[in-house]
Each structure stands twice: as C-alpha cells, then as structure tokens.
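Minimal example, chain plus magnesium ion.
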Amino acid sequence: MICLGIEGTAHSIGVGIIKSKGERCEVLSNIIKIYRPEKGGIHPREAANHHAVYIGDLLKESVKKSGVDFSDVDLVSFSKGPGLGPCLRTAATAARALSLSLSRPIIGVNHCVAHLEIGRGTLKGCKDPVLLYTSGANTQVIAFAEGRYRVFGETLDIGIGNCLDKFGRTVGLDFPCGPKIEELAKKGRKYLELPYSIKGMDIAFSGLLTAAEQYYKNNESLEDVCYSIQETTFAALTEVTERAMAHTEKDEVLLGGGVASNNRLRDMVQKMAFDRGASFFVPSKDLCIDNGAMIAWLGVLMYDSGIRMEIKDSFIDQRFRTDMVDVTWRD
Ligand code: AMP
Ligand code: MG
C-alpha cells in the first residue's frame, strides 16, 4: 500500500509518501517546509497562510521524488491534531481535496502517536518502546498499555522546544534556537543552578526559563547558561522516562520530536538505557521532526486495522490527546 501523508500541526508543512511492507515502513519521499516568523513566536494564522502557499508545490515535489505517480497513491492521511487550529485546517483541507480528486480514502491521525509509530515502523528491533517525545509544543513520555498509548508524564506548562526557543529569542538567536543552543552549550564550562521541577511524573519548564534569562541578564556567559539549561532540562526528561520504563517494565526507549536531534539529550537517554540493560532507539533526523512520512505510516496502520473515515467526518481536533486514540493495530 502507498500512502501520502500531510503534516501541518504547527510551524511545519510536510508531505511524505511511504510504502508499507508488512510491519515495515519504507519512506519514498519526505519533504517539509518550515515557517520562520521574522520576529516573535508562531502566529497561527500566518503559519497557516505559509502552509497554504507551499502545500501545492510540496505535493508535486514529494510525488516527483518518490518515483510514484499520484494515481499510485492508495490512501491520503493528515494530522488531525493536536496543534494550532488554522494550521491543522489548512493541511486537512489539502488532504480532503486530494482524496476527492484521486478518489482515494482519507484518514486523520494523531500527531503524537505518529511520532511513536514511525520509530516502530522504521527501526529494527523497536517493538514496544517508551517514547520520550520532545518537540516544540509537546513534551510527553508515552507507552502502550491496555489498548492505548498512555501518557505517563508530560510538561505542565511549555514544551521543551518552546522553552529553548523562548530563551533563544530573548538572547537574540534565530528560530529554531535548539540547534544554536546545542552548539553554544558545547563551549559551556560552569554549571549554573536552575530550578529542577518534577511533580510526580510531570515537568515544568517556565520557572527554569525565567531563571536562565536572569542569569544571562546578570552577565553570566551565554555558553554557560545554554549548557546549564540543557543539563537540567534533559536530566529531568531522562529521569521521568526512566521511571516510566521501570513502572511499565519495558526495556526499549525511543526518542522522537525535533529536540531528539540534540546529541546531548541522545547521550543522556542512551546512557540511562545502557545502565538499565535496555535498548535505545532514535529515528533519522528527518523522521524525528514534524513530517508527513510519519503521518502516512500511521494512516496505513489504522487503515489496515479496519478504520475508515468519511470526508464529512474528517474534521480536525486541536486538543486531540494521545490517550484518546483507540489503538486497534497492535496488542
Ligand atoms: P518539532 O516541533 O518536533 O518539529 O520540533 C521543533 C523543535 O525542535 C524546535 O523547538 C527546535 O528548537 C527544536 N530543535 C531542533 N533541533 C534541535 C537540537 N539540535 N537541539 C535542541 N532542540 C532542537
Ligand atoms: Mg511533533
């Protein structure tokens, strides 16, 4: 089966085409275009306008790169949520238009679950992981239990990516700031004490963000502040992930989301896995960030398990939680 997936939950619009081979996913093409605001954060309407401008070309380019034709596409899927309303609606509208014009079925999928399934679909040996999902808006520790992907821990305020981006914006770095902070952190030497707020299995980042901004204003070196932010936030994320693994007795950990590109985060989680005798998995970077291929792959899993969606039911859901999805394609 060949599926074309459209991602559009926030800053990125993406089109991915995948071919399913039993339980494995072969990515034929996966193209994204990122909306970068000139200043300030992401304005939902402006991001949606950006997506509307580029989606047509992205569709053509993705099909061209994949080596298949539009007529070879068996299924169209899109990110139903969670995300920013105007962005989600733009991606869903494109998916509906394509589904109708090709006379192919449509399916709306949960973006967070897609981040997990793309790891299981593309990484050998990755079968039943605890997912540490670290992206711009979302930060969750997810694992499968009794028919659902359960959220074992999550951020109580902002996502880890937003925390990095907000700090970066304050100190004058360009969006996305995570990669720049990673570079600066490599040169940091002094650890500055930052609030480490874990409540039960949940995490909060905004207090840490304020404290980090304060250090910078008080003339601590930017490198040291970046280093301290990474050490503190990543340690907290790793701790919650380890506790979820202990609780669920799972011996695989998977990273997903844009922040999973960060080598320091990868090192910390990998070391934790090694110490527990567990396996560590991380998808290729183009499959970690928000992308259409993961949306396409989850579409196939759902469709193959018998799920069907009519165009009239293909609405979006800005607050579509991970644990609302009935996982019919695995046990
Ligand atoms: P996503 O929302 O999953 O596409 O991820 C986007 C987020 O990932 C943004 O907040 C980026 O700043 C962050 N990001 C991307 N690369 C890195 C990196 N190397 N280190 C830390 N954060 C990163
Ligand atoms: Mg994401």
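The two ends are 22 Å apart (CA to CA). The pocket of adenosine monophosphate (ligand 1) is lined by residues 12, 135-136, 161, 164-165, 176-179, 182, 257-259, 261-262, 289-290 (CB under 6 Å).
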